[in-house]
Amino acid sequence: MSYRSLLRVAGAGFFPLGFSARLPYAASALSTLILLQASTGSYAFAGLASAAQSIAIAIGGPLVGALADRYGHRSVGVAAALANFAAWAALLVASHGTREGMFAAATLVGLTQPQVGPLVRVHWSHLVRSHDEHHLLPVALSYEASADELSFVAGPALVGLLAALSPLAPAVVIMFLIVGSTLPFALLYAHRTTHRPSSGEHGKPHLPRRPLAVMFLAMVAMGAAFGAVQTAVTVYAGTIDKPGASGLLYAEFGIGSALAGLACAWLPQRFSLRARYVSFTAALFVGMLILFIGAQLVSLPVAVALAGFTVAPYMISIYALTERLAPAARAAIAMTILCAGGPLGTAAGQAVSGGFAETHGVEGALLTALVVAAGALLLALWAFLVDRGRNIWIIDRVPDKDQVFREPLEQSQNAR
Predict the structure, then answer these.
(1) CB neighbours of 242 closer than 8 A, spacing ≥ 6?
(2) Which CATH entry fits the domain spanning 16-193: 3.30.70.60, 1.20.1250.20, 3.30.420.130, 1.10.357.10?
(3) DSSP 8-state symbol, 112
(4) What confidence tens digit (pLDDT) does each residue in 176-186 have?
């Protein structure tokens, strides 16, 4: 019933276009790596350029979010799509030139990356409020988490198929996707107006720094776990002399996460956001523990399948808390700051786990994921204990936010 209601509110065209619009981002890192390695013959340079691109995405994302809050999501979304198309064209041209030009173009691709995931979550927030369907926001966020996970399954798989034809093919198809999906999606579905303060508001509201910093660190931890798992499955595929198996194993991880994300739509509303955050962080830790132990006692493929189910619920709780704590006038920048933690964490996780994998193999990489998950759990417990009785997390005083998460919070406060 919940997903049928979501379809009615958003319209049927929203879902296929929204999914294909995020594929360029999901495919960009691997496409860049393949293109530049083929051009230079150096995995080291290609990896360095891809890392620079990820860092550029983390830097450019909040900038895009701030511009979207100020000038409107549609106009900024269209501009970002056109700029990213031009950046990919520059990368294709630079791939026939110097390494300096390739590095600069790869970085530009990251800086101009359209922020489809963060901005579409802001769109959902406005959409369900405008239709007086507040209860559908958790359902929408569950769908978005699953769509993200599936895009990171489909995107690399598409790149793998295209790269068999030519190293240039993935980048060319990404450009077609930007023009055929990302740009139309921004035109049709991006939130069209900037926020206008109500009579009770004075100036631009401030972002709640401490809660947003905690959410950012929580996303960094998730990215680091992703990076460590990617390293682990790559090392495992090498040990069994089947390099192609790494993509299939990571796809298995993503599919489990997507299924769990879809199931989150049916969680009861009385299960408050703070409780979800702590509970699902604990579940993530258990998932990484199962992955670490299961890979040694059973098999890595089985452990990956089980651990994947703990990822999306954790991410959904982070997105939902961020949506709730951000004033409407700053929602886009809050979401893009949150998402910037993902690529930064992934780069750090890959670097650290790669070092451990050199000496301890698969177990070393998985130990990195386990330690990161333990850190995320300590962060969640600390935030919960600091927040208890002080209400610094869920900003109920913001007048223009909906009530969808307020009632569960008030119920938990009354119970105390």
Answers:
(1) none
(2) 1.20.1250.20
(3) T
(4) 999 998 898 88
